């Protein structure tokens, strides 16, 4: 693919993350030729969303060491600086399934009929002067011992459903396996069908002859004979026992099946008091049934229904990303779901945070006085710039101190600081007021919420900008890693070299940090983010609405500057199958000393359980922990002047930071240009074919040349006639007015320019016909008959 690319572009963008995709669309929108490449086989880079199967492959790829042996050598003018071929920003991965498949299906079915199976085994066992012939039933895993008259010849062992015979052929659930010493333990299998029929068949073989016994042995089995010399009374007794227990077992199985079906369907002996209670009971029973049925194999079969984000992000309804989507008309490529509730943890209990006016006055977690104080303060934050005197003394002080100065209660301060403004104890007052205002401006724009979630994951957002770039001529290539940059003597990047040896020249280069060499990155700006992805069987705060999308922020008493942000996504957000939830945990760290699981374990323990211990907390079915190294944008001084590095996703929950970074880079590189203006409506665009226009002009010019000569001749004759005194004008001069000396009727033809040649109408015949008809009409009027 790289060999087919053009040799030169205006801008080369390496990486398909959020800031890179925005810049690629902005450059293409103003007419720049853009090449957008990515080393991965998927879009969005560190912002990507994966299915369950793909994220397992991503973990394996991230743990693979970088290999640069396949790079082709190329000779170029300038210095070559190698780039990273793989992303080494992620480490300390731990993926785990917290559920497993049952070892044997028969063991699951054994429990309802365990007592009947034990009773059945005792009654059909005969051990007096008889060898053991053992038969295992699939339904109840009971062993049936059939007497054998010749203990020295045969020994029938237990056959398990998943045991493979020596000829590697699969057998039925019920089989009799015979082993002989002469064949060294090789087992022969006789498929006899169901348990009762087999028991009868074996008893009939003991009553018949050796020929009948051989006829019951399938082809390919050993020729060894099964001898049976039991007496008639013993046979009848065994038959009665088998038939009696079979009937009891079938009755027991029927009752057990009915009981199981009633339990699964939520049926009870008493009818619900109302339809609402019946529906709630049915929903609860279905949810419990689905939770019980989730196994590792079933979870793997549903791998396509998962959309797991590496870096989940939300959109403020009134934030810069939403405004950019609207003004650039890129919103048509996206779908969103509102964050229906914001939660907080107070005294170990989850509570819903009242955000809007209606929520505040309907909340039971705050008193009436607290409601009035909270509404008064939130009203002030909407236009706090107009009341600067109220917080002048707290400009250099933390926002929490200003909240305490307003004499707000402890719960109200907790709501505003950790749920609405999402600030820490060190956040200054102006920044805290600004974040609170941003939240309030976003509230109510798209419903009673301040946040939007991109359907199918936040990895869809970069792809929407990639589509816009492609519409305006951008070229995209995945699985195309750039091996090195070409730097000239003036420390300017003149192009990139692909791993295939293809050299592409460019005027400007934009690159994500993980691609850049270590010499370009300021290590002081490095930070670490511990992330966790959980799949649970129910919501952390159950409610009647199963489609609640929740946001929770838990402060850390040991590390107050770095709280844990939790985002819970239901199946309606297109993140997982029905009856499951996806939970994202994010926590920033100053260093990489702690493992991600250890850093997040305290919060996980508060809300979830890792085993089915019967607790009311949601059970974790699947989990993935990993650590991400990020850079805040620090660049070294030796970086080329036309190379721009953009950071990856940070620990913040909103996506507006990426828009701010992309806008600043574009305005600095292209001053005076509009940043992603709205594209024209396709219906308003008029496409003009230059070749067709040229042909039309040529045809018009030829037609004019053939008629202009006649026009010139007519004008010459007219001028000569008018210039001769005493002569009458010709008929052609009087056409149009119907009277002598009237004005002539002429049209401008040809180029359309002023003073161009004129062409007189040659409609003499038609005009004469009209004059004749008018004269005839006049004559007829005059010749009307006169009444006597």
Describe the protein's architecture and organization.
The structure is a single chain. With 788 residues, this protein is an alpha+beta fold. 34% of the residues lie in helices and 19% in strands. It has 20 helices and 28 strands. Strands 1, 2, 4, 17, 18, 19, 20 and 26 form an eight-stranded mixed β-sheet that branches. Strands 5-25-21-24-23-22-14-15 form an eight-stranded mixed β-sheet, with helices on both faces. A three-stranded antiparallel β-sheet has the order 8-9-10, with no helix packed on it. Mean pLDDT is 74; it is low at 106-110, 124-234, 241-253, 259-277, 283-291 and 718-788.
Based on secondary structure, the structural category is: alpha+beta
Q: Can you summarize the main beta sheet?
A: 8 strands, mixed
Distance between the termini: 105 Å
Mean pLDDT rating: 74
- How would the global form be characterised? globular
What gyration radius follows from the Cα positions, in whole Å?
43 Å
* Strand element count: 28
- Proportion of beta-strand residues: 15-25%
């Amino acid at each position: 693919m790289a060999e087919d690319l053009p040799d030169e572009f205006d801008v080369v963008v390496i990486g398909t993350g959020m800031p890179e995709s925005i810049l690629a669309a902005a450059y293409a929108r103003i007419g720049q030729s853009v090449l957008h490449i990515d080393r991965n086989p998927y879009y969005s880079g560190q912002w990507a969303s994966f299915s369950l199967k793909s994220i397992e492959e991503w973990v394996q790829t991230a743990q693979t060491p970088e290999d640069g042996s396949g790079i082709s050598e190329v000779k170029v003018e300038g210095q070559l600086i190698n780039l990273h071929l793989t992303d080494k920003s992620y480490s300390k991965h731990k993926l785990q399934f917290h559920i497993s498949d049952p070892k044997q299906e028969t063991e699951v079915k054994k429990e309802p009929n365990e007592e009947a199976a034990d009773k059945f085994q005792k009654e059909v066992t005969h051990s007096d002067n008889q060898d053991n012939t053992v038969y295992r039933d699939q339904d109840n895993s009971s062993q049936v011992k059939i007497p054998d008259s010749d203990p020295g010849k045969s020994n029938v062992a237990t056959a398990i459903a998943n045991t493979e015979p020596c000829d590697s052929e699969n057998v039925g659930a019920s089989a009799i396996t015979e082993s002989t010493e002469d064949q060294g333990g090789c087992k022969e299998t006789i498929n006899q069908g169901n348990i009762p029929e087999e028991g009868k068949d074996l008893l009939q073989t003991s009553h018949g002859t050796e020929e009948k016994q051989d006829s019951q042995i399938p082809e390919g089995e050993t020729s060894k004979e099964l001898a049976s010399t039991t007496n008639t009374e013993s046979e009848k007794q065994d038959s009665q026992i088998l038939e009696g227990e079979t009937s009891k077992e079938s009755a027991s199985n029927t009752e057990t099946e009915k009981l199981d079906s009633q339990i699964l369907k939520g049926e009870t002996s008493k009818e619900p008091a109302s339809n609402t209670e019946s529906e709630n009971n049915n929903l609860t029973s279905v949810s419990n049934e689905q939770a019980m049925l989730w196994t590792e194999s079933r979870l793997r079969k549903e791998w396509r229904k998962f959309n797991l984000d590496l870096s989940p992000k939300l959109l403020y309804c009134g934030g810069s990303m939403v405004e950019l989507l609207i003004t650039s008309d890129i919103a048509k490529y996206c779908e969103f779901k509102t964050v229906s509730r914001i939660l907080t943890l107070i005294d170990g209990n989850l509570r819903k945070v009242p955000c809007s006016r209606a929520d505040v006055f309907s909340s039971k977690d705050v008193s009436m006085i607290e409601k009035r104080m909270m509404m008064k303060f939130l009203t002030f934050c909407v236009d706090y710039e107009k009341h600067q005197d109220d917080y002048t003394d707290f400009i250099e002080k933390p926002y929490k101190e200003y909240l305490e100065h307003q004499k707000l209660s402890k719960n109200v301060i907790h709501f505003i600081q950790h749920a609405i403004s999402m600030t820490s104890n060190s956040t200054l007052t102006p920044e805290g007021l600004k974040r609170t205002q941003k939240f309030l401006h976003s509230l109510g724009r798209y419903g009673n919420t301040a946040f939007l979630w991109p359907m199918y994951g936040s990895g869809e957002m970069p792809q929407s900008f990639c589509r816009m770039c492609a519409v305006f001529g951008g070229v995209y290539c995945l699985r195309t890693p750039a091996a090195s940059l070409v730097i000239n003597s003036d420390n300017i990047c003149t192009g990139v070299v692909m791993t295939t040896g293809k050299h592409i020249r460019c005027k400007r280069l934009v690159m994500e940090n993980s691609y850049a060499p270590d010499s370009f990155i300021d290590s002081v700006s490095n930070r670490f983010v511990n992330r966790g992805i959980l799949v649970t069987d129910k919501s952390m705060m159950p409610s009647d609405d199963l489609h609640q999308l929740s946001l929770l922020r838990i402060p850390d008493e040991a590390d107050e500057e770095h709280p844990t942000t939790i985002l819970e996504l239901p199946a309606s957000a297109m993140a997982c199958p029905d009856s499951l939830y996806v939970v994202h945990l994010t926590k920033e760290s100053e260093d990489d000393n702690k493992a991600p699981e250890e850093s997040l374990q305290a919060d996980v323990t508060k809300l979830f359980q890792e085993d089915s211990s019967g607790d009311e907390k949601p059970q974790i079915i699947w989990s993935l922990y990993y650590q991400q190294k990020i850079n805040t944008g620090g660049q070294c001084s030796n970086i080329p002047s036309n190379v721009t590095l953009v950071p990856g996703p940070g620990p913040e929950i909103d996506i507006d930071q990426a828009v701010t970074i992309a806008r600043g880079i574009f305005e600095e590189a292209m001053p005076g240009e509009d940043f992603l203006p709205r594209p024209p409506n396709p219906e308003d665009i008029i496409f003009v074919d230059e070749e067709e226009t040229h042909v039309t002009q040529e045809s018009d010019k030829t037609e004019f040349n053939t008629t202009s000569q006649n026009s010139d001749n007519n004008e010459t004759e007219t001028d000569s006639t008018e210039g001769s005194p005493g002569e009458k004008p010709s008929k052609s001069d009087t056409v149009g007015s119907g009277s002598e000396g009237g004005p002539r009727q002429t049209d401008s033809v040809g180029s359309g320019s002023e003073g161009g040649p004129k062409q007189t109408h040659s409609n003499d015949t038609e005009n004469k016909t009209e004059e004749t008809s008018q004269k005839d009409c006049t004559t007829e009027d005059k010749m009307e008959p006169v009444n006597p």
